[in-house]
Every structure is written in C-alpha cells, then in structure tokens.
Amino acid sequence: MSVLLLIILNVILPVFCLIGIGAFLHRKITFDMNTLSKLNNYLLMPAVSFVNIYQTKMEGETVLNILTFLLIQSLCLIFFSTIISQLAKFDNRLSSTFKNSVILNNSGNFGLPVSQLVFQDNPLGLSIQVVVMIYQNLLTNTYGLFNSIRVNYKGLQAMKVFMKNPVVYAFLLGLVFNSLSIKIPKYLWTPIDNISNAFVAVALVTLGAQSAFLKINRFSISLILSLFGRLILSPSIAMIIILLLKLDGTTAQALFIASSFPTSRNSALFALEYGNHPEYAAQVVLMSTLLSMITVTTVVFLSTILF
C-alpha cells in the first residue's frame, strides 16, 4: 500500500492537478487549441527532446541489452496493434491514433518519478529508465510522428512533412552535441533548459483543455482495446522478451516496470495537431493514467518477486 500511496501522491496527483487546471481554464476563458498545439509541437517538444538526448550518457553492455529489448518490444507492439486495428476495421485516422496509444508510453513525467520511488537506493534502475525515456522520445518523434502524418500525406509527401518537424532536428543536434561533448554556453543553455522545463506543465494543461468537454458515457471498443494494449499486452510482451533474452536483476525489473506505463500525452498532442480523433486520444491518455495506479503498482510488486 505504501508504494501505491506514494505513486498517487507524488505522480498521479500532480499530473491530474495540471490536467484539471487546463480543463477549468478552457471552460472559463476558451484556449485557442491550435495555438497550444503549435506551441507544444514546434517549441516545447524540440527543446525537451534536445535536452534529454544532450544530457544523457549511454554506454556499456547494459545499454546494448536495454536497446535490444526496447527494439524487439516496439516491433511486437507495432505488429499486434496493426493486426488489432485491422481486425477491428478502424479507419485510417482512428488506426493511427490507436497504434500510437499502444506503442507510445509516458516514460517521462510518469516513468521517471515512479522509477525514482522504486529504485531510490539503486542508481542503475533510474539510469535504465533514462535510457528508456530517450528511446521513447526517439520512437515518438519518428514512428509516432510519421504514423500521424501519413494519414493525410502519402509516400514522399509524408516524408517531406515529417522532415519539416523541428523535433527531428532537435534530436539530431542533441546527438551531435552529445557525441562530440560540445559544451553549450550558459547564456544559451538557460533559455533552452527553461523551455524544456515548461513542457510537462504546458502539455498537461493542453491535455486538460482537450478533455474539458469530454464525456465518457461508455467505453467504446477502441478505448477498451487501447487500454488493454497499453496496460496489459505491453507488460505481458515485455515479460516474454525478458525471459527470452535471459535478463535478470535490476535490468529486468526496470524494463518490466517501464513497459507498464500509461499512454504518452504526445499521442494526444499528435492527434490534435493532425486531426486524428483527438477526443479519443485524450480519453485514452486520461483513462490509462488513472488505471495505471492499479496496473503499475501490480507490475512493481511482481517485479520484486520475479526478479
């Protein structure tokens, strides 16, 4: 119960406070959602992406094991989410958002605090979560972004739109600066860091605004399948991959826990930006975050027993 209480107080409550503020303000003053979407996608997301990739040091055999696991898991989730969306006969826009809701998880403002609680006496566990977060950021802004864009654009046209997104170049710039150990002067780093720090608050307020007039009268089949895919299927696949790769100890624990995190808010931001069922996307983020209080706690408990 202590782990559940800590997750609720230190992770879930702050997240829903910001979502609630966004919903309240949107009802009172009516935000321009298009402007909020552009602010997130063209300023805040590039900044947080650059900062994450620039600051993190990845090296050693452990990192290779982590990346191997993450790549296999992503391919499995892409495969299963594609099959499920075809069997459910989702249209292209709904299919795009559904796949993003299953494949992309909230490894940042949800995953890092959870890992800090679980691995407070084990720095390796938190370091693994940082690697997972960077991988998820890369996956979000490559597959996730392209998956959203190609609903409206095909072939080379979709690639052209994809390459116009500043997040792609923020990642590449972060990789170059990191690999070459280029030091950024303080007068430049301070505004970049300040913009990066604003991302979580503005993104969650935006999600709250998206959710301000949502009414979940019933759980649609698409919502149920998204919740199942993200909260049940993902950790189940992770367990199988961990056993196949013969991972153990802290590495196995951290990766198993990371696989259970709720749907990324970026999937809702992409859906809003490209008009791919944004209300449904916001519902998935909200409900998966709420239900993760149960599922993440269960996975944390199982990880202590199994590994």
Radius of gyration: 19 Å
Structural class: mainly alpha
Low-confidence sequence ranges:
none
DSSP, total strands: 0
What is the arithmetic mean of pLDDT?
A: 85
Number of helices: 13
How would you describe this structure to a colleague?
The protein is mainly α and 307 residues long. The chain has helices at residues 2-29, 33-55, 61-87, 92-103, 111-118, 123-149, 155-163, 166-179, 186-211, 221-245, 249-258, 265-274, 278-306. The two termini are 20 Å apart. It is globular and about 50 Å long. Helix content is 81%, strand content 0%.
Summed up:
The chain is an all-alpha fold. The chain has helices at residues 2-29, 33-55, 61-87, 92-103, 111-118, 123-149, 155-163, 166-179, 186-211, 221-245, 249-258, 265-274, 278-306. Helix 12 (265-274) runs antiparallel to helix 13 (278-306).
What brief labels describe this structure?
307 residues; single chain; globular; mainly alpha
